[in-house]
Amino acid sequence: MSDSTDERFVDKRAAARMSEDKPAAGEPAAGAEGGTPAQGAPSEELAAEREKADSYYKNWQRTAADFANFKRRVEQERGENARLANAAVVINLLPVYDDLDRAVTSVDSTLAGLNWVQGVSAIHQKFGRLLEAMGVKEVEAEGVTFDPARHEAVGKQPGEENKVLHVLQKGYELQGKVIRPAMVIVGEGS
After folding, report:
1. Which end of the chain is more exposed for a tag (fewer CB within 10 A), N or C?
2. What is the chain's Cα-based Rg?
3. CA-to-CA distance for 169 and 77, rounded, in angstroms?
4. 29 or 170, greater pLDDT
5. 8 A C-beta contact, residue 164 and residue 184
6. Contact between residue 150 and residue 174 where contact means Cβ atoms under 8 Å apart
7. Cα separation, 108 vs 117, whole angstroms
8. Is 141:151 a contact under the CB 8 Å cutoff?
9. Using CB atoms within 10 A of its CB, is residue 86 exposed (0-12), middle (13-18) or buried (19+)?
C-alpha cells in the first residue's frame, strides 16, 4: 500500500472540541476532586451570604435605634403638650385667684367674723393649695434685686437702686419657669 491509502481522514471540528475538553497545564481534569471546574465557589457564596447577613443586621440595628429615638421624641412631645396644657389652665386661673386674694385682703375688720367671709377665706386657701399642687409658686419680688426675667418694671421711685420697692401684681412660676412676671416698682437710687 501506498502512503496515500494510509492517509487518515480527520474531522477538524471534533478535533477542536477534543482539545477544548482537555485541561490546560496546571488545571485539574474535569471530574477530579469535586467534579466542578470552579473549586472556590462555596467559600465565595458563604462570604457573600455573610456580607448580606451583616448588612441585614446593621439595617436592623439602625431601624431599632430609629424606633427608640421616635419613642423618646413622642414621649417628650406628650410631656411638653401636657405641660403647655397645664400652663394654659393656670394662666387662665390666675386672674380669678388674684381677684379672690384682693377680696380677702381688703375685707373690713368689722366683717371679719361673719360666716360668709370665713367661707370666702377658706375658698381662697383651697385655691392656693390647688395651685401649689399644680406646681405654681409665687415669684419673689418685694425687697429683692430686680431681675428682668422674673419681674416687669412698670415704674421707678426714689429708693435703693435696682431693688423692688412695691409689687403691683404678683408673678407666678410653674415648675421653675415664669409664666407671669411680677409687675413691680423699682428704686432709682436716692
Report:
1. N
2. 46
3. 32
4. 170
5. yes
6. no
7. 10
8. yes
9. middle
At 74, phi and psi to the nearest 5? -65, -40
Q: How confident is the model over 133-189, as pLDDT tens digits?
A: 988 999 998 889 999 999 999 999 898 888 999 999 999 999 889 999 999 999 987
Which grid coordinates belong to 172?
A: 407666678
The tens digit of pLDDT for each residue in 31-73 reads 444 444 445 588 999 999 999 999 999 999 999 999 999 999 9
What global pTM score does this model have? 0.59
Give Cα separations from 153 to 47, 158, 159, 177 (angstroms): 74, 14, 14, 19
- Evaluate if residue 5 carries a pLDDT over 80: no
- Sort 84 into a burial class: Cβ within 10 Å, 0-12 / 13-18 / 19+: exposed
Tell me, what amino acid is at 25?
A: A
- How far CA 125 is from CA of 50, 71, 102, 110, in Å, comes to 71, 41, 13, 21
- Please state the separation of Cα 147 from the chain's center in Å: 31
Which amino acid, residue 184?
Answer: V
